[in-house]
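User: Structure tokens for both sequences below?

Assistant:
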Amino acid sequence: MRAFSSDVAFTPAVKAVQTEKGSRAGYARMESGGSWETTVTPDLMGFLADLDMFYLGTVNAEGQPYIQYRGGSPGFLKVIDEKTLGFADFGGNRQYITLGNLSENPKAFIFLMDYARSRRIKLWGNARVVDNDPGLLDRLRDRSYPGKVERVILFEIEAWDVNCPQHIHKRFSQKQVVPVIEQLQGRITELEAEMRRLKGE
């Protein structure tokens, strides 16, 4: 049993380095003040609603980590209950590294990144693959997204933390950029028409 939820990441070795580098006292204050969240809050739910991608980390029995990009429509990583997130798993290159890792080690990590707003959230927990559950699959599928759903992956939260925005480079999705470009193109068309009119006069 962990004394603090953040102990999922702050192992004795990590705390020793924090002590050596001078940050342990600050994190000890954070721990005594409540440590990290362990359930889905309205803030996390709102963050997930806008997100169209995340990174999923798993580890095999030998301790070799693997990170995989997951993408879909905004909000495709859904809240199942206060401790569980889930998503429809689409067909890919058929390497099945994530599935293989989870078959021998349920430990998993989700990294949520909002590049446009310079926000990131880290989630520690356990994941499992769910096959042959039509009801759950139907709940998580997005009929407007063209990917073929093959299974569901559920993620049970142990702890999560909001990371600082420092060093996050701004990036914008096509969905965010297209309306701005269309607006600018419309304005250019208006100005070009105005120039032609003035030249004609």
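Moving on to the next sequence.
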Amino acid sequence: MSKIFQIFDRYRTSIDVVTTSVTSVSATVEKEKHLPRIVKELQKLGEVTVLGNHKIPVEMISLEASNASITFVVAEKHANKTLQVLHKTYIEA
């Protein structure tokens, strides 16, 4: 955890919400300015997935240890787009 927080600190990027499990760490950030560099450094520690690639602001996220379940919160105005992205990514893939 310390290494993860050090990476965000290095790029002066605050974590809004963080959840952890035995096998994963999920975080949301408000500012994306340094996100590509942060992701590159985080990839040295493990697998990194960014859901924000579709410009859907995720307010909270939690991933089950088995990766079989993901929970997140988005504003209602983004619900339809979110469902479309999830369907294309996880059902059609």
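User: Anything stand out in the second?

Assistant: The radius of gyration is 14 Å.
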